[in-house]
Amino acid sequence: MKEWEVIFADQKGEPSRLLLHAEHIPSEEDAARAIRSHLFPVMDELDLNDFQDRAISPTARWLKEQSGVTITSIHEAP
User: Fold this and answer.
1) Fewest CB within a 10 Å sphere: which of 18, 20, 37, 45?
2) CB-CB neighbours of 22 under 10 Å
3) H/E/C letters for each residue in 6-65?
4) What's this model's pTM, rounded to 2 decimal places?
5) Which domain range does residue 46 map to?
6) Number of domains in the chain
7) How many other C-beta atoms are found inside a 10 Å radius of the C-beta of residue 12?
8) Is residue 30 over pLDDT 60?
9) What single-letter DSSP state applies at residue 67?
10) Phi/psi at 40 (nearest 5 deg)?
11) Better-scored residue on pLDDT, 50 or 68
């Protein structure tokens, strides 16, 4: 498995990093779920049915709209 680095702006607008392990590059939605689990462990199982089938990445959209968290890049870790 490869290690992928997800860079995102946290709630304070400061750049943060999170490492994910996967064979292929994670999608924005996969990265958003990992970030949500990391930042908001209690909300990890949040029901996003309101966005389901209406948004390409419902978790990424939720993070941005509700918490101000924005994914800036996903690349293979050095």
Assistant:
1) 45
2) 14
3) EEEECCCCCEEEEEEEECCCCCHHHHHHHHHHHHCHHHCCCCCCCCCCCCCCHHHHHHHH
4) 0.81
5) 2-76
6) 1
7) 8
8) yes
9) I
10) -130, 70
11) 68
Q: What is the pLDDT of residue 53?
A: 56
Name the percent of the chain lying above pLDDT 90: 54
Sign, CA torsion 47/53/55/59: positive
- What mean pLDDT comes out for the span 9-37? 94
Q: How far apart are CA 33 and CA 57, in angstroms?
A: 10
Cα separation of 32 and 6, whole Å? 9
Whole-number Å distance between alpha carbons of 54 and 9: 24
CA distances (Å), 47 to each of 5, 27, 43, in order?
26, 19, 9
